[in-house]
Write a structure and sequence with these properties.
This protein has 243 residues and is an alpha/beta fold. The protein is built from ten helices and ten strands. The strands form two sheets. A six-stranded mixed beta sheet has the order 6-7-8-3-9-10, sandwiched between helices. The chain has a four-stranded antiparallel beta sheet with strand order 2-1-4-5, with helices on one face.
């Protein structure tokens, strides 16, 4: 008997720009509720991978599956409607709006015809982000970098997605704020959301993940439990800066 479909799956994906592949036959799956972190040197194809997953770049070949459904031919809005939320590295909140207004936009972006009301989702999401509950009336642009990332994550979770894709969530944050953010990421994962994270801070990212992938020159160099990736001496020496 087959088990439940993976939350997110790529099968033999080739993708790139102008007919030139950047990703070469990428395959992996993230099981429901798991955290998979993608690490690797600059220029390894991590940004191209994220764009391909969320529907901003259509693969040249291969398949992208979301909850068992083939979404390869669908763009980003259609994938969002099917439960894939995406938080880009930059421009991921409306800085001139309040925190509460940002959460409204997140809820209405994939306006659910059925399911929880805005108030119900607000309470559920704020339960994961108590740090921003007291900031609801504050202008989002006036918050700290770590708080802005929390607002971005909270807004993305408002429509109750099944998969959350984060692109470099710790970028620009102090070590302390990056650590706090990954504590929040742990809370979100514990709520049952499947997570794909591209992260430059390999120590922090792999330390908070279930599974890890090392991407090098568009190829999967290693796919294994995160602790295995984190402690492999050759991988650390060659690709992870010895962390």
């Amino acid at each position: 008997m087959n088990g439940p479909a993976a939350g997110l799956e790529l099968r033999d994906v080739v993708a790139g720009y102008g007919g030139q592949p950047i990703l070469h036959s990428i395959s992996f799956s993230v099981q429901p509720g798991e955290r998979l972190v993608v690490v690797g040197p600059n220029g390894s194809g991590k940004s191209t991978l994220m764009k391909t997953v969320v529907g901003l770049l259509r693969p040249m070949s291969g398949a992208v599956r979301l909850g068992g459904a083939d979404v390869t031919a669908l763009g980003a809005p259609a994938r969002a409607a099917l439960g894939l939320a995406y938080i880009p590295q930059e421009t991921n909140i409306f800085r001139n709006m309040t925190v509460l207004e940002n959460l409204h936009v997140g809820y209405e972006f994939v306006a659910p015809s059925k399911g929880p009301t805005f108030s119900e989702r607000l309470e559920a999401v704020l339960g994961l982000f108590p740090e921003i509950r007291v900031k609801l009336r504050s202008t989002a642009g006036h918050l700290s970098g770590g708080q802005r990332q929390m607002v971005a994550m909270a807004a993305a979770l408002m429509p109750k997605p099944t998969v959350l894709a984060l692109d470099e969530p710790s970028a620009g944050l102090s070590p302390r704020n990056a650590g706090l953010l990954f504590e929040v990421i742990g809370r979100v994962a514990a709520s049952g959301v499947t997570m794909l994270i591209v992260e430059q801070n390999t120590q922090l990212g792999l330390g908070a993940a279930d599974q890890g992938i090392v991407l090098v020159n568009g190829h999967v160099r290693l796919a294994a439990p995160a602790m295995t990736v984190r402690t492999d001496p050759e991988i650390r020496r060659l690709y992870l800066g010895g962390v």
